[in-house]
Design brief:
Chain lengths: 216, 216
DNA sequence: GCATATTTGTCCGTATGTATA
DNA sequence: CTATACATACGGACAAATATG
């Protein structure tokens, strides 16, 4: 007990961070039963600390709890994905104006597209998916609202969870690399109208692809 | 233990509900130190359960924790209020179109205005404030996005916390009763453009009033 | 359908570190 | 600086619900 590899501040938050990352990386698959005793011994913390971490993750939508049955990595439904895209269609266009008026923001969007392209060249498709999500989160962030940014963080974390429930990561992310580049370039060029319509059709297409991947 | 005053399901959630309501009602004022031991004995639950409830409320933004000093009812800052209104200016206009196209939704908005008017006649100004928040939340809800709705619920809960930090509830809410009625009527009439500009000036004015109330 | 083992939900006592009087 | 009060985290315990054979 005396020595602990983790700093002594907010142990439950740290446990939640570990689980959050493992879920995001696909190591803990959707539907997996997270046993309290197993995790507490594995991480070297008390069972109660694990329970606190669970509660944090439940609030973030990464974990679900069933009465007296335990905690499970969340399985996203088709309805969840539909709602996520409904929300995206409302939120993301809000960021086009601000980023079109600020070349620094628009340039940052293109940088993210470039990093996605690098990952694609190496065939790291899950990384491409992450970069794609990062691009759209950056778009929302250009609204400069801390609360909207926090919400979009959670929104895209849930969407990533849906990605993990589909099989072929390449088919899921490759088509949207160039589409994202087009959107970013239209924003940099200040063509707000074209960027908006391009974004709208992107979202329609992407939603269909994700749902198809989950059904198949 | 055998008997327990609270039902045995989700005790932490129930404790959180109790605290949430007491905070919303102003019984637990912003800045108040929430002592674990005091609450655990008062509510007849263990300190661990209280801690879990705290963690839920921290995630909702109702409570803040300071390192090794404990949990406190959140005190909203001027910057918080600015960000809340920045978010409102982005989110609320999204609901005007949908509610203008659906007479049922628009009618519901006017019903809320009416209930606020009844509360005002009885001088229940805090209730007027709650109804005013309900109106704007209903506006966002007309976007029919579950996630956007959840976020707006949290957003308006935070704003209510800011309301509690101002002195005069009447001065804070009375001017906006008629303003809200005007907005709701413009939406019902289908005059989207006027509703948008009226909402925009409402938000500007309301932000100024809240911040003035917090400063004074 | 039933008995047993497992797991969760809850609580207690306690040790340790930290901030305040 | 000491003392007190408190938060943090741990281990152990038990009842209730669930899963398993």
């Amino acid at each position: 007990m005396g020595l602990d590899p983790l700093q002594r501040s907010r142990t439950a938050e740290q446990v939640a961070s570990v689980l959050r990352r493992r879920i995001a990386d696909g190591l803990l698959e959707p539907g997996l039963w997270l046993k309290e005793d197993e995790l507490s011994t594995a991480l070297g913390v008390s069972r109660h600390t694990v329970r606190e971490a669970f509660q944090l993750l439940v609030h973030e939508g990464m974990v679900v709890r069933a009465q007296h049955r335990g905690a499970f990595v969340r399985e996203m439904s088709i309805d969840d994905v539909s709602d996520i895209f409904r929300t995206r269609r409302l939120m993301e266009p809000l960021g086009i104006g601000p980023s079109a008026r600020d070349k620094v923001l628009a340039g940052a969007l293109l940088d993210i597209v470039d990093s996605a392209a690098v990952a694609a060249e190496h065939g790291r498709w899950r990384e491409v998916g992450t970069a794609n999500l990062d691009l759209h989160r950056a778009l929302v962030r250009s609204c400069r609202s801390a609360r909207l940014d926090r919400m979009s963080g959670q929104l895209f974390a849930e969407l990533r969870l849906a990605f993990l429930m589909t099989g072929d990561a390449q088919a899921l992310h490759e088509p949207y690399l160039e589409w994202n580049r087009r959107i970013a370039e239209l924003i940099l060029a200040g063509d707000v109208g074209s960027a908006e319509s391009e974004l709208a059709s992107y979202l329609t297409d992407s939603e269909r692809t994700v749902i198809a991947g989950m059904s198949g």
